[in-house]
Amino acid sequence: MLVAVIFYGYGFIMKSVKSSSQKDMEPCTICRGQFDRRQLVVREIGDSKLLYFCRQCILQLYDDISKR
Length: 68
Ligand SMILES: [Zn+2]
What we know:
Elements lengths: L1 H12 L11 E3 L6 E3 L4 E5 L3 E5 L1 H13 L1
Antiparallel strand pairs: 1-2, 3-4
Bound molecules: zinc ion.
C-alpha cells in the first residue's frame, strides 16, 4: 500500500517533461534515465497516465522493505 502511494506521488511530480527523441525510449519515472521500453515495467494510472520503472529502481524500492 505504501509503495502504491509513493508511485502515485511520483506521478504528479514527473508528469511534466516528456522529450523522447527516440521512439522506443522512455524515461524511468523514478531515476529519469532513458531506457528501452521493453526493459521497463509499465503501470497505468487512471485513464491515460503511464508510469515506467526500470529494473534497478524496482529492486531499490524492494530493498527498502528489508531496511525497515
Ligand atoms: Zn529507474
